[in-house]
Specification:
208 residues; alpha+beta; Trypsin Inhibitor V, Chain A; 4-stranded mixed beta sheet; 3-stranded mixed beta sheet; 11 strands
Length: 208
């Protein structure tokens, strides 16, 4: 059979129709599959995960067809439960596609430790700026007779004296003992100073 006769034959037209139908079915099936995979036109509202524990948040996201991904643990926030979610991205009520990762940050279980620097012998103004930068708080301030006014003579945490290198929790409240700057102006101080001077002169004379 010649090519011309075959192209004009009934058999060719039947095979051509079958081929067209098969191609149409394949294209239709492919489009449906892609539509199913991408959920074309379907979006999911991101649930609010703030204050939720990881296990509960993970279950909630899986039910919605989303995925949980932990980014980091942030400094402890007392207004939120320990180990709960404090931040999420995308934000609640945003519309996303199925399978989207929801990135979260977790609240620490407690305040982190702070190592105390050398605070004694400095002015209270210097120390105040320092402890604020460390995330600590000023507590009770008391004074005692001393030559230098507002010089830090002692630092206390819960009634116990602390020093350089000791560790306290961030947000801890420190109490301070300061000099009142009035010791030089009392009679006792002058008497004490005169006695020291006289003793020194006696020692110097004896040495000669």
């Amino acid at each position: 059979m010649s090519l011309v006769k075959f192209l004009t034959s009934k058999t060719f037209f039947i095979q051509l129709v079958i081929a067209i139908v098969l191609v149409a079915v394949l294209v239709f099936g492919l489009l449906k599959f892609l539509n199913f995979r991408t959920h074309h036109g379907k979006e999911i509202e991101v649930p609010d995960l703030i204050k939720m524990q990881l296990t509960a948040a993970d279950e909630k996201l899986k039910e919605a067809g989303l995925e949980l991904y932990v980014l980091d643990t942030v400094d402890f926030r007392p207004d939120l439960p320990p180990f709960s979610i404090v931040e999420q991205d995308p934000k609640p009520k945003n519309a996303v596609k199925d399978g989207r990762k929801i990135y979260v940050k977790i609240n620490a279980g407690e305040y982190s430790d702070v190592t105390l620097p050398d605070l004694e012998g400095k002015t209270f103004r210097q120390v105040s700026a320092n402890i604020i930068s460390l995330g600590l708080k000023e507590g009770k301030v008391t004074y005692k007779p001393h030559i230098a006014k507002d010089e830090v003579l002692g630092v206390f945490f819960k009634g116990k004296k602390v020093k350089r290198g000791d560790k306290v929790k961030k947000n801890a409240v420190l109490d301070f003992l300061l000099g009142d700057g009035e010791e030089l102006y009392t009679d006792d101080t002058f008497t004490k100073t005169d006695s020291i001077s006289q003793s020194q002169e006696t020692e110097d004379n004896a040495g000669e």
